[in-house]
Write a structure and sequence with these properties.
single chain, 581 residues, alpha/beta, ABC transporter transmembrane region fold, Rossmann fold, 2 domains, six-stranded mixed sheet, 10% strand, elongated, binds adenosine-5'-diphosphate
Length: 581
């Protein structure tokens, strides 16, 4: 099961295609580099007897030649390394790019299943390791392999009988290497899983640090962390121990092999089958095998660890992605903003629906508030309207057109989301509002004015060019909400989906956000997951959702006047400001 299979890496080969010319040039340098080895072995065979005989003139001549060959070889090596480094690094970059593109298209269900820490680890550490293997394979393993072939070929040419003896030792080494390799691979996979669990825990811990402190739960978290790092250490130690055992074993076999070859060589000279120059060249060549073998051994281990990493990267590719637009998906023209849900049934697990046959018609320009206890299905409804998920039964229509028949990009231009957590990306304020759309500063300004954000943005040092830090940490909650509103209205969507923040802002920010919202909502169809009394009071219609069913609807005055779920929600303060009737 853990047997090394290069198939994973072989599938990366097409990525090398665009760099063919550079690879050819690097390959040519590699051939020169490799061809110099047997030449040097031959020179060694000339040199050693000349030294023994004290023939200084010959020694000088050979040394001069060897120097020239060395120089040629090192120049070729430089060419090989620089020419091949580019493609090798490009391939690992291409791999990372492909994976990130895949990540962006993953179904949300799949995304939730893989934790953020785990994904980050895969796209950084695992991708690095795979990149390193690609790099080493191209730049180190390939010349080493060729060197083995060239040098051993020369040895066979010198004395094939002696080479036969040498060759008996090679499989022994190979068997040992692969035997240990398989075990190292298993240990490496386990240890990488631990590292990734550590990253996941760290991600969770850092995000939850204030909470941990508030609950005085530091000793608990510390203990949990310590357990995790201990498991991590144990897994790493198992890998290290195997590596530690592998090198001496392989090294000893090599040494014993060389001594055996010397013994055999002496016999060959004694029987006059080989002269001393030939044997000197043979031994020099033999020594030239050690370095590439040791490189190949190391690289083989890394290759196997890389295999585990590659498998973890490939696992991302196995996750389902958002279904592409239907062939012939219709472009969306001018949108009025009429929304219809027709007998919609949806469950994250299809066996277990969370929306049970929902029927709904929202006229263009209507403001509709969605209320209901947590878990009622409000966010799920939003995810269907944005086509993050697709109803298993029934239809969702925008201006009479089934969402599944529209192009996703068009749909999401027509329907904009203001999420509960503002989630503004870092960059400049203008970039945070534009969010990748190709718009002028004027358009951004107009959106910001509509969201009642223009005033505070202008007062920032740098104005629209002021920086938003990661997670918007240098802005207040109310400011971030207004940036998120500006971001949503920038594309002038016909439909606005608002998920109101559950936590209250101070009165002043609340008023500023409220004003932004009112301006942003004007002339659009609005569906709002409401938590504030002001919102429900001003809505044209309130829909009360419970357990994935529409259980009541009407205006605030109608609903509050009769006992039922809505009045309960107001009394239980799930609609803020509604408790004091
Ligand atoms: P609300 O927004 O009203 O609080 P949701 O739409 O988030 O409710 O949830 C409706 C139901 O769907 C709940 O039972 C919830 O547990 C379930 N649910 C929500 N998101 C997922 C998800 N990604 N995978 C599986 N079940 C989910």
């Amino acid at each position: 099961m853990l047997a090394p299979s290069p198939a994973g890496f072989r599938r990366l080969l097409p990525l090398l295609k665009p760099y063919r010319r550079q690879l050819w040039a690097g390959g040519a340098c590699m051939l020169v580099f490799v061809a110099c080895w047997p030449l040097l072995a031959w020179l060694a065979g000339q040199l050693i007897p000349a030294i023994g005989a004290g023939d200084v003139a010959k020694v000088l001549q050979v040394v001069g030649l060897a120097l020239a060959v060395f120089m040629l070889q090192k120049i070729a090596q430089f060419g090989q390394d620089t020419l091949l480094a580019g493609p090798a690094l490009q391939v690992s970059q291409d791999l990372r790019r492909q994976l990130f593109a895949r990540l962006q298209r993953l179904e949300f269900g799949a995304l939730e299943k893989l934790s953020a820490g785990d994904l980050t680890y895969r796209l950084t550490e695992d991708a690095d390791r795979v990149g390193e293997v690609i790099y080493k394979t191209i730049q180190d393993s390939t010349p080493c392999l060729l060197q083995l072939v060239a040098v051993f070929g020369y040895m066979v040419w010198l004395d094939w009988r002696l080479s036969l003896g040498t060759m008996v030792l090679a499989p022994l080494v190979a068997v040992l290497v692969s035997l240990f390799g398989a075990r190292v691979m298993g240990a490496a996979e386990r240890s990488q899983k631990q590292v990734s669990e550590l990253a996941a825990l760290l991600g969770e811990a850092i995000a939850g640090l204030p909470l941990v402190r508030a609950f005085a739960a530091e000793p608990w978290l510390q203990a949990r962390f310590e357990t995790e790092i201990d498991l991590h250490r144990q897994a790493r130690f198992r890998t290290q121990r195997l590596l530690a055992l592998q090198y001496p074993v392989v090294g000893f076999i090599e040494a014993a092999g060389i001594l055996a070859v010397l013994l055999m060589g002496a016999a060959r000279i004694q029987s006059n089958d080989l002269n001393s120059a030939g044997f000197s060249s043979y031994v020099a060549a033999l020594l030239m095998l050690i370095d590439p073998i040791s490189h190949l051994t190391t690289n083989f281990n890394e290759f196997q660890q890389g295999q585990a990493s590659l498998r973890r990267l490939r696992a991302i590719e196995a996750e389902p992605i958002e279904p592409p637009d239907q062939p012939g998906a219709r472009a969306l023209g001018a949108v009025q903003g009429e929304l219809v849900l027709d007998q919609v049934v949806y469950g994250y697990d299809p066996q277990n629906p969370v929306l049970h046959g929902l029927n709904l018609r929202i006229q263009p320009g209507q403001v509709v508030a969605l209320v209901g206890p947590s878990g009622a299905g409000k966010s799920t409804l939003f995810s269907l309207l944005l086509r993050f998920n697709i109803a298993q039964q029934g239809r969702v229509l925008l201006d009479g057109q089934d969402l599944v028949e529209l192009r996703a990009a068009d749909l999401r231009r027509a329907i904009a989301l203001v999420p509960q957590q503002s989630n503004v990306f870092s960059g400049t304020v203008a970039e945070a509002i534009a969010f990748g759309r190709d718009v002028s500063l004027d358009q951004i300004r107009r959106a910001a004015r509509l969201a009642n954000a223009d005033g505070f943005i202008e007062s920032l040092p740098g104005g629209y060019q002021a920086r938003v830090e990661e997670r918007g940490s240098n802005f207040s909650g109310g400011q971030l909400q207004r940036l998120a509103i500006a971001r949503a209205v920038l594309g002038d969507p016909a439909v606005l989906l608002l998920d109101e923040a559950t936590s209250a802002l101070d009165a002043e920010s609340e008023a500023a956000v409220q004003q932004g919202l009112e301006q942003a909502m004007a002339g659009r169809t609005v569906l709002v997951i409401a938590h504030r009394l002001a919102t429900v009071q001003e809505a044209d219609r309130i829909l009360v959702l419970d357990g994935g069913r529409l259980i009541d609807q009407g205006t605030h005055d109608q609903l509050i006047g009769r006992p039922g779920r809505y009045r309960d929600l107001c009394e239980r303060q799930l609609i803020r400001g509604g408790g004091s009737r």
